[in-house]
Amino acid sequence: MKNISVLGSTGSIGRSSLEVIDKFSHRFKVVGLAAGRNTQLLEEQIEKFRPKIVSLERKEEAEDLRRKFRGKSIKVTFAQEGAEEVASFSENDIVISAITGINGLRPTLAAVQEGKKVALANKESMVVAGPLIQDMISKFGAQLIPVDSEHSGVFQCLAKEEMGNIKKVTLTASGGPFFSKSSSEMNDITLEEALNHPRWKMGKKVTIDSATLMNKGLELIEARWLFGLEPRQLGILIHPQSIVHSLVEMSDGSVLAQLSATDMKLPIQYALTYPERENSLLPSLDLSEIKALEFYEVNVEKFPIIKLARLALEEGDSLPIALNAANEVVVSAFLEQRIKFMDISDVVTEIVENHQKRKAQSLEDIFDVDRETRRVTLDLLKKRS
Ligand SMILES: NC(=O)c1ccc[n+]([C@@H]2O[C@H](COP(=O)([O-])OP(=O)(O)OC[C@H]3O[C@@H](n4cnc5c(N)ncnc54)[C@H](OP(=O)(O)O)[C@@H]3O)[C@@H](O)[C@H]2O)c1
């Protein structure tokens, strides 16, 4: 029996993870849950899974929860430190890291520092702190298994391969809801349209990132650090069917691909059972029903954010941190309907192009760049309003 803590348990990945754990309850047991503000769902999860430690974002709600579960042998903590406490809980064997944004970084590091197996969905951690995380994994003997479907695909393709034999890794992107819109139509996109992803049901931030293609840009940077690849070895193809998750070209010209149904429960299950496999929760993939698998180049004029992400991938140092911070700020502003869809890439472009790149190797440096970029981005949004 493996003990699991789920960070971000009330989110899309968190809920899917709990479904997988429930299905394999003979193998896995929930010992910790960390959520943000959805207290009602967290309470339901506590009733069902009986964890030993939970955390949420705010103190007052944690105190309410403590009163409700008094005498039930459950520790209730809160804030960033609370999520870190759940992540480093001594009984954990596996930690699923699925808090959104840079808020997931410290809890991810807390799990790595305890030498745990970490199933990583929180791509922003790798984007802002890839080299630091990899150093800590070696130092503390932790293990990182990707949950992002594209990275899980690459990880599966590479299971028995020599890293030195990889020529190129291509991540696929569905293209989001606006793949077939013309550039002029992109100006009038509403929040509702941007949140209506054609293939995946996800949290709001990652859904908007998928609509701008920033999600794929972040995934390129994530892949660089997860697999130790050079920027020139990484590419993207639009694949509207979202069946092929990634392609790995080997030095002899063979191209390995991982295909599966469009459901995050599969990569989550694989990360939890790795290196073993279990029977699927999902129906078999029927390619005769799907018929065509299409692939297209990205239109960078329509999705300029991809150029920026490539720049951050190639330049490294503090640039990916600035890219991520600016994006988190503008996506929040778009979700609050304070800016238009195309403002997202305009503002991120201005911030990244004016960012003074510097080394950012320690956690302190990373958070300095993050804080400073958020401040500059908020100032720019104020000026433009
Ligand atoms: N969804 C997908 O299909 C998918 C696929 C691949 C990778 N990912 C990555 O996985 C991560 C999560 O995505 P998601 O779609 O599951 O997002 P989501 O549905 O928005 O869920 C985010 C989770 O994080 C919690 N949270 C947010 N801020 C927090 C904080 N400050 N402290 C503690 N908990 C906090 C939320 O809590 P409350 O809801 O309680 O506030 C929620 O449980 C992202 O990094 C995303 O890029 C997602």
TrEMBL record:
<keyword id="KW-0464">Manganese</keyword>
<dbReference type="Pfam" id="PF13288">
    <property type="entry name" value="DXPR_C"/>
</dbReference>
<dbReference type="InterPro" id="IPR036291">
    <property type="entry name" value="NAD(P)-bd_dom_sf"/>
</dbReference>
<dbReference type="InterPro" id="IPR003821">
    <property type="entry name" value="DXP_reductoisomerase"/>
</dbReference>
<keyword id="KW-0521">NADP</keyword>
<feature type="domain" description="1-deoxy-D-xylulose 5-phosphate reductoisomerase C-terminal">
    <location>
        <begin position="144"/>
        <end position="227"/>
    </location>
</feature>
<dbReference type="InterPro" id="IPR036169">
    <property type="entry name" value="DXPR_C_sf"/>
</dbReference>
<protein>
    <recommendedName>
        <fullName>1-deoxy-D-xylulose-5-phosphate reductoisomerase</fullName>
        <ecNumber>1.1.1.267</ecNumber>
    </recommendedName>
</protein>
<dbReference type="GO" id="GO:0070402">
    <property type="term" value="F:NADPH binding"/>
</dbReference>
<feature type="domain" description="1-deoxy-D-xylulose 5-phosphate reductoisomerase N-terminal">
    <location>
        <begin position="4"/>
        <end position="130"/>
    </location>
</feature>
<comment type="similarity">
    <text>Belongs to the DXR family.</text>
</comment>
<keyword id="KW-0560">Oxidoreductase</keyword>
<feature type="domain" description="DXP reductoisomerase C-terminal">
    <location>
        <begin position="259"/>
        <end position="375"/>
    </location>
</feature>
<dbReference type="Pfam" id="PF02670">
    <property type="entry name" value="DXP_reductoisom"/>
</dbReference>
<keyword id="KW-0479">Metal-binding</keyword>
<dbReference type="GO" id="GO:0030604">
    <property type="term" value="F:1-deoxy-D-xylulose-5-phosphate reductoisomerase activity"/>
</dbReference>
<dbReference type="GO" id="GO:0030145">
    <property type="term" value="F:manganese ion binding"/>
</dbReference>
<dbReference type="InterPro" id="IPR013512">
    <property type="entry name" value="DXP_reductoisomerase_N"/>
</dbReference>
<dbReference type="GO" id="GO:0051484">
    <property type="term" value="P:isopentenyl diphosphate biosynthetic process, methylerythritol 4-phosphate pathway involved in terpenoid biosynthetic process"/>
</dbReference>
<dbReference type="Pfam" id="PF08436">
    <property type="entry name" value="DXP_redisom_C"/>
</dbReference>
<comment type="pathway">
    <text>Isoprenoid biosynthesis; isopentenyl diphosphate biosynthesis via DXP pathway; isopentenyl diphosphate from 1-deoxy-D-xylulose 5-phosphate: step 1/6.</text>
</comment>
<dbReference type="InterPro" id="IPR026877">
    <property type="entry name" value="DXPR_C"/>
</dbReference>
<dbReference type="InterPro" id="IPR013644">
    <property type="entry name" value="DXP_reductoisomerase_C"/>
</dbReference>
<keyword id="KW-0414">Isoprene biosynthesis</keyword>
